[in-house]
Amino acid sequence: MRKLAERRNNSGGVPKIRAAASGTVFSESGAGNGRTPLTMMSGRAAFRRITAVLLTVAVIISGSPGVSFGAGGDSYYRKHGEGWFWYQDPLPREDRDEAGDPAVIPETAPGPQEVPEAVPVPEYSRDGLLTAAYLKKALPVYLEKAMDNPTPENVRDYFALQKMSMDKSQNFAGAARLLPLLYPDLDEARGRTDYGRGRELQEQMAERDRENSLRKLSGEAGIFFLYRSSCPYCREALREMARLGGYGFRIMGISLDGGLLPVPGAFRNVSDPAMGSVLGISAVPAVVLAAPDTERKYVTVSTSLLSPRETEDRILEGGRILGILPRNDGR
C-alpha cells in the first residue's frame, strides 16, 4: 500500500491521513490505531478532498488573521455568507496613526479657540471726527459687544459711533452738492433734456402724443367689448369703456350670457353668445380692437380687468400690429 499523506507532526497534534490503493480514504487519530472510513470515492475525487483538508489545516496552523476560531474573533463559520474572496477595505491613510493602526477619533472634536477682537486705537481726521477706517473696524466690535452685553453704556457707545458715521456721510454729501458749481464737467445735468424739469416736460409731451395717437386710431378702428351680465369685473370695466369712448372709439357691447349691461358710449349692445367662439374668447371682460379694412381684421387686447393705462397702451400696440399706426407712434 502506497502512502499519499504525511504522518502525525510530533509538535502539532495534526491527524495523519492515509489513502489506500483501493480508493478508500481513512483517518487515523493520535489516540489509537483504529482507522475509520470517511467515504468511498475515486482516486481523483480523493485527491481533491485531501487537498482541501490540507489547505484547511495549513490555514489553522499559520494563524491567519482572516479566520479566527477564538471566542472573541469573527470566525469564518459565523461570516461564511461573505464568501471566500471577501475582504475588508483598509482604512484611509489619514485615519491611521504612525504605527499603521486605526486612529482613535474622539466623539466631539474641540473647536478652535475664538479670540475676541481687540478694539482698534481711535484715529481722528481733519474734520475732528473719527476716521472712516477706524469706524469701519470699530463699529462691528462695538455692535457685537452691545449685542452680547446690552448694558446702557455699551449700547450708547455703539450708537455714538453710528451717529458719527452718519455725520461724516452728511459732510460728504454736502461737498458733493458743490461739485456742479466748482467743476461743471462733473454736472450730471449737463447737456441732458431728461434731467430735472426737462424730464417733466418730456413726459408731458409724450402724454400729448399718446392721446393724439388714440384719437387717430379711433377714426379707423372700433372696439368689441365682450362681457357677461353676472361678472362683477365686467361691471368694473364699464368705466374704461366710458374713457375710451371719450377718445372717439365706436364701442359695440356683446353679451355672452343673454343679459345686457349698460355699456357707456356703445353704439350697439347685443346678446350674441356665439361671438365668443368666433373670436376665440372664453374669458371676460374682453376687449378686441377691430379694423375691418385691414388685413388682420382684429386684435385681442385683453381678456381680464386691466388698469386704464395698460388697456390704452395695449390698444396703441394693437393699432401698430394692424398697421394703422407707425411703430414709433405714441411712445
Structural features, described:
This protein is α/β, with parallel strands linked by helices and 331 residues long. It folds into three domains: 1-88, no CATH class; 116-186; 209-321, 3-Layer(aba) Sandwich (Glutaredoxin), CATH 3.40.30. It is built from eight helices and eight strands, in the order βββαααααβαββαββα. It has helices at residues 43-62, 132-148, 152-177, 179-182, 197-218, 232-246, 275-279, 308-321, and strands at 16-19, 24-28, 35-40, 222-227, 251-255, 266-271, 286-290, 298-302. The strands form two sheets. It has a five-stranded mixed beta sheet. A three-stranded antiparallel beta sheet has the order 1-2-3, with no helix packed on it. A hairpin with a 4-residue loop joins strand 1 (16-19) and strand 2. Helix 5 (197-218) packs across helix 8 (308-321). The N and C termini lie far apart (118 Å).
